Amino acid sequence: MTQPADAAERRAIKPVICYPNETLPVPDLELYRSARATAIKTGEVLIQPREADTFRVPAGNFFRISSVEGPQVGDLNLWNADDISERFYPGKSRALHGTHLTTGERMWTSFPGLRPMATIIDDSLDWYGIDEFGGSVHDVIGTRCDPYTGNLLSGSQYHHCCHSNLTRALADELGVSLQEAEPHVHDVLNVFMCTGFTRDTGQYFMKASPVRPGDYIEFFAEINLLGAMSACPGGDCSAEHSSDTAACYPMLVEMFAPAEGALGNWQSPPLNGYDRSHGR
Ligand SMILES: [Zn+2]
């Protein structure tokens, strides 16, 4: 199409932030961290490469995801453990915080809950920031690697994409069929994954994750959580996923319980306050 006469003028309009987040409830990181300092480890799950596993974290407890043997990214799903129809909502979390999450930011739940389900209290990769390609770590812009897209693009039948790994893990956890579990699997927090959008074509890109063994990200559970983590077949996501080509490593999930009274009168956040009358 031919550009209108005022094309440059229209492009030059400055953007405005869609959701200014100054009025978001601020997590009490100091309280969370002081409770974490004396918390006791209650369990751990070692996620095998190209597999997923589940874990449960009661409200007010903590969980840490660590790189253990080599650079590896993971796909994280979270549900309200008491009602799995309330689950992580990456789209709204992205709209509220930006394309990548780090310390002090939160994972928000789906409608009608729209409340914080987990708060990031520590991130050993928070130094990374945004690199010269626009890449950053722990994104909420990708989806999860899945066999349907692989089939669409190359006719493949690959069974260890994060989507399938998460589906198997959730089915086993709930004791239901794969068909019943699959619709509960949702878009993820891409833990340790380094991603962005290219400036010229706007395409989703990945690059070798800066994560190294010992790196971790740690969360405070705002509600009772059921989690599932997949150690992505993409490994550090430096080259390809949806195949068995990349070097893959396990990932460690550890859970911690705070000492009695360490959280004072802290309480789980209530469901969103919108009255749901939708104008009728
Ligand atoms: Zn994956």
Descriptive overview:
The protein has 280 residues and is α+β, with helices and mostly antiparallel strands. It has six helices and 13 strands. The strands form two sheets. Strands 2, 4, 5, 8, 9, 10 and 12 form a seven-stranded antiparallel β-sheet that branches. The chain has a six-stranded antiparallel β-sheet with strand order 1-13-3-11-7-6. The longest helix has 13 residues, at 162-174. Zinc ion binds at residues 75, 144-145, 161-162, 232, 234, 241. The site of zinc ion (ZN) has 8 residues, from loops.
Short description:
The chain is α+β, with helices and mostly antiparallel strands and 280 residues long. The chain has helices at residues 7-11, 29-37, 90-97, 147-154, 162-174, 178-181, and strands at 40-47, 52-57, 62-67, 74-80, 83-87, 106-108, 116-123, 136-139, 189-197, 204-207, 216-221, 225-231, 251-257.
Mean pLDDT: 95
**Helix-and-strand structural type:** alpha+beta
Strand count, sense and barrel status of the largest sheet are:
7 strands, antiparallel
Distinct ligands, ions and cofactors found in the model: zinc ion
- Strand runs, count: 13
List the total number of helices. 6
The SSE string, one letter per element, is HHEEEEEHEEEHHHEEEEE
Residue share in β-strands: 25-35%
> What is the terminal-to-terminal distance?
43 Å
How many individual domains? 1
Rg, alpha carbons: 20 Å
Question: What does the overall shape look like?
Answer: globular
The low-confidence parts are none
What is the percent of helical residues?
10-25%
